[in-house]
């Protein structure tokens, strides 16, 4: 691991009031949740168009639910790793430190992260496929296996769908607004994300434009690597505890 870079990040964080960490699938990799891209990524084995689009669901809801049912069982067996735990501790210790995630596994929540912004929703929530006006519009369902091969809307009895963002869909405007507001910060860290899916991939540029010191923590280079102020080549589950140890030592 790049010790100089880790020390440089810790130094920046020591004087930072507002810190935003954008996380992607790589942060959950050490917990056993597969990433989407890369050698073992889900999109190598499955076609996103047949599983993660509204068109795919309209055509074959049972197939899409089977895929989400499989992923729910896989995620249910996973626990937060040291990266999730350090980030949760940061949100508890520092008022202006936020986590924005693209992950739908909720491992940040299990770790205790406060005020988490979930840009792509949660695999543990359902909503009505027809968009009926029953409230709440999304509800938690942690049944394993799924409550039915094609779960139903608790309000209208029609088809329910996973409350996640699919390709071709817009993000929740409130989440986008909060994430955009969080981009106004002293230090912005993007970690475990291939930085190819927008709007999430654009937040680091937004943060830089507003004066943030920008950092990438990733095991590989991404389109963002050449744009940031500091690149840390390493695993999130090792880098965050190393940075945190420096922060805690300085606090003694
Ligand atoms: P990706 O699977 O595209 O990228 C994962 C990134 O994590 C890669 O850049 C890896 O190099 C890096 N990585 C892997 N292990 C790591 C580790 N231990 N520590 C640090 N980095 C590591 O995941 P996302 O960028 O999150 O969207 O994908 C974005 C969106 O694309 C997902 O939310 C999902 C997907 O299609 C939807 O389903 C809408």
Verbal overview:
- The mean pLDDT is 96.
- By secondary structure, the chain is an alpha/beta fold.
- The radius of gyration is 19 Å and the shape is elongated.
- It has a 6-stranded parallel beta sheet, with helices on both faces. The protein has a 3-stranded antiparallel beta sheet with strand order 5-4-6, with helices on one face.
- Helix content is 38%, strand content 17%.
- The chain folds into 2 domains: 1-32 and 80-120 and 171-252, Rossmann fold (3-Layer(aba) Sandwich), CATH 3.40.50; 34-77 and 121-164, SIR2/SIRT2 'Small Domain' (2-Layer Sandwich).
- Helix 8 (107-111) links the parallel strand 2 and strand 3 (117-118).
- The longest helix has 16 residues, at 61-76.
- It binds 2'-O-acetyl adenosine-5-diphosphoribose.
- Residues 24-26, 29-30, 35-38, 41, 52, 102, 120, 165, 167, 191-194, 197, 217-220, 222, 235-237 line the site of 2'-O-acetyl adenosine-5-diphosphoribose (OAD).
The first-to-last residue Cα distance is: 24 Å
- Major β-sheet profile: 6 strands, parallel
Low-confidence stretches: none
The number of E-state strands comes to 9
Order of strands side by side in the largest beta sheet? 3-2-1-7-8-9
| Strand/helix succession | HEHHHHHHEHEEEEHEHEEH
How are the SSEs placed, and which strands pair?
Elements (H helix, E strand, L loop, with lengths): L2 H12 L4 E5 L2 H4 L12 H4 L2 H4 L2 H6 L1 H16 L5 H12 L3 E5 L5 H5 L5 E2 L2 E8 L9 E3 L19 E5 L8 H10 L4 E5 L11 H7 L3 E6 L11 E4 L2 H16 L1
Helix pairs in contact: 1-11, 7-11
2'-O-acetyl adenosine-5-diphosphoribose (OAD) binds next to helix 2, strand 8 and helix 11.
